[in-house]
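Data card: per-record layout.
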Amino acid sequence: MASPSGELTLPTFTDCQNRNKGFRQVLATLPGASLVASANGKGLRAAALPAAESMLEGHPGISMIFGCNDDSALALSALQAKGLKPAKTLVVGFDGTTEAFQQIKSGGMFRADVAQRPDCYSRRMMDIAVKLANHQATVAQYQKAGPYFYKLPLVNRR
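The structure for this 158-residue chain is written out next.
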């Protein structure tokens, strides 16, 4: 059974570009799943809602939508009033905001969120800063090592 999906993007923000890239990479591994629509939601509810509406008008069978940030994904909850059935539409966000967690808890379409861990990032940056200040490492070493990724928690109702 085909599972058409859509995404709301924010192409001017590198983090959102990478989030959407990750979404597409995972989607490609799911049998029957396909990305049928992509729209620039500008990372804001006011822009994400009409972008999602247009996307869904062109592809009414979309069953999953990924919002590159929680504000984009939260805009989709307004689509329930337009007839989208929460049980048949999965909305996934990214940020870990309190409002997103409340939406997930309420049992609507917004059913999963990737929660960021700023505490992990800040600890990592402080560790790097201390090593650079103490001449225990160089910027070139960190550049050569490439990106450092954290496994972020997925939040859902379970």
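Known properties of this structure: The beta strands are 3-9, 33-40, 64-67, 90-95, 110-115, 154-155. The longest helix spans residues 118-133.

See the next section for split statistics.
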